[in-house]
């Protein structure tokens, strides 16, 4: 998914100095952002309170939207570098095309994972004949320096492992949870899981004290560590926990995102993750010139133009604002 802000704000983030080493309960405000012709997303990360959770650097939640008479998601070809995109659906379908030649329809419960490495481009759209409801999340994982120039790849995982018990059913999307590991490729210690709570359930989920965590509510009103979360809200939990209390009065689901704090300082602007402002400017110039990022074939429309770079140099602000 692309960041379609016309004036995306550059940010320097990462490093451990701004990581909350103790358990906290910080509710992160979302920002409403239009995405394509008929989709509006709630941008939870980066936001006014925090820029990263482990290596997770970007989180959009969208829907549930009635698109029965709408085109649905329509995101033209756009570039990425230095990150992984994680596509996750609760309802609907998204058709992925990329400059590697991949063509894949993603459905609920299936993981679409694109590792951009040094450079890739892709498009995302609701198929012409699509389900009436679209609901999901799009997330980015920052790649560490040792792997950010790797060859780009696309992975589709139709089957993912589950953790069940005590009224919980967790799908392990990325990384490891409660001893269960996803087949998805990761480059830093992290976890991404979709956790469903049955009405009336109460449980304590084992987590790692060295990881920082956040919870993104997808549906219902999950109660995470005593905080009731409305759909589309995100709770930052900090580090220092060995278990996470959960309960729900109604059927609910949320995404648990976490990982070891990302030590490296990164620069993130538009759809690029780099290490310097000069590197970001070079990537923008390459995309504008039609170089380096390849061609997405089969999309009916023009590719996205890169927004203008800000007139001032990038300013380091850390993981928090």
TrEMBL record:
Source organism's superkingdom? Bacteria
Cofactor(s) named in the record = Fe cation
Q: How is the cofactor bound?
A: Binds 1 Fe cation per subunit.
Positions of Fe cation binding: 78, 80, 122, 124
SUPFAM superfamilies xref list: RmlC-like cupins (SSF51182)
* CDD domains named in the record: cupin_pirin_C
Q: Keyword DNA repair on this protein? A: no
One of the Pfam families matching this protein, by short name: Pirin
Q: Which InterPro entries match?
A: Pirin, Pirin_C_dom, Pirin_N_dom, RmlC-like_jellyroll, RmlC_Cupin_sf
Q: Where is the Pirin N-terminal domain?
A: 45-141
The Pirin C-terminal domain is annotated at 193-292
The protein's GO terms of the molecular function aspect are: metal ion binding
Keyword annotations from UniProtKB, A to Z: Iron, Metal-binding
Could you confirm whether the keyword Metal-binding appears in this record?
yes
* UniProt record similarity statement: Belongs to the pirin family.
Official protein name in the record: Quercetin 2,3-dioxygenase
Query: What is the species of this protein?
Result: Streptomyces netropsis (Streptoverticillium netropsis)
